[in-house]
Amino acid sequence: MTSEPSTLFSIMCDDIREEALNKVSLLGIYGPDIVFKKLPAVIPKLSFFARTTGGAGRYKFNFRLQGPGPDAMPLVQGQGVMEIPSRQPKDAVTTFAIVMGNPSFNQAGAYRFQVFLDGKTEPLVDHPFRIKTDPKMFRGRH
Description:
The protein is mainly β. It contains no helices and eleven strands.
């Protein structure tokens, strides 16, 4: 393995679709806040898309969607394997996508989506966001 991969950026959205000609469509891109009329609330799909660079090799990874508070249990967690070919140029990027079904949010506050490689304590991906409520925002909508 060469140097470990590093994250260029991550995006939170509703869904990720692979298209023809090496394209990816990100649907329903969120900013730093997800706003609901009231809590608890469920999102049918919540997806995270990231681009990384460097670090050719095969990596086991763990991911988690962490709720507010330092002692909160992860809302969603899982694991997988990421393979970065060694034949790609040094500055090539790797696409990384995780789609979670039906995450439930019970309280407002600061949340994080994180990906850890091979049992490391520092995350490869650390995507903070906030859950908020604003009933006025949904006035007149069904």
